[in-house]
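I would love for you to help me understand the pair of lines that follows before we discuss the fold together.
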Amino acid sequence: MQRILINCNVLTPMFITGVDGRTPELRPASLKGVLRFWWRAVQLEEETKELCQRESSLFGGATQETGRSKIFLQISSPSGLNTNPYPPLPHHTGRTGCKPCLDKDIYECKKNSKIPAIDLNQNFCILLKYIDLPEYFSTDQLISLCKLIAALSGLGKRSRRGFGSFTVTAIAGIPVSPFITIEDIYKWLQDLAPEKYKLDNDIIRLTAECWAKYPFIEEIQIGREYDSVDNLAKTIGMASHDWDSDYTGFNRRQDPNDRKQKLQRMASPIHVSIIKSQQGFRPVITSLHTEFPPGWKSNDPMSEEFKGAIL
């Protein structure tokens, strides 16, 4: 069995818990799910049956034919992980006159409550163990996938809005630069899905139209520099409030006048993570293709305004 040790550092508070749902804890199952999601998101396969077979042969599946995962994870922190309470909605002030609340005719803000999270600047290690990788997936691709999720994603709640971000600091004892560029992200995508993406004017886009019916990466941009994590997190939060699109507040009512029917919601297709820069922090904005159920509709202009408020 082969092993790779990856050292990481927490950039933004991680709202991730153990089995009790309250105590902050880094769990291998959560990281495994993130690896699986983003591996699928870069593949651009219109034949979903074939994609599912390849995914199961790599990460494991429920059937006897696919068997268990080829990749095993362990997470540790030699010095332990400190926790502190943080507000998952930092754009709310918790006081009267809070703009997001006033916009909804609410005078007293009650949405600034803090919950326990893994603190900033905590170090942890990921031990990757693997055996008999499929012929279409190499050790280098596994490393590129780990670097990619550190750039595009996060761990825990609110990870689509910048929380739970982390950076890779060393791989197999060799230091890694904490400053990620759009060229770095493009290189990792090329490792995982050759010739399927292009880099043009500092924006990563698909090379061709794709009709796959699952979330896949359509575009990646890196935004402007912010002087602190707090300022960037508040900007992301306020943008999500100001430009709350139909992706996250869509209504499937047959009769729009019937208020008794439940409002349906979809997860946002816009992922915002946070990376280090030379002078501060920058947002990485990843736009995913969304496959809507019958009867649903999207609101693309709102998503573009949301991204523009952060970029």
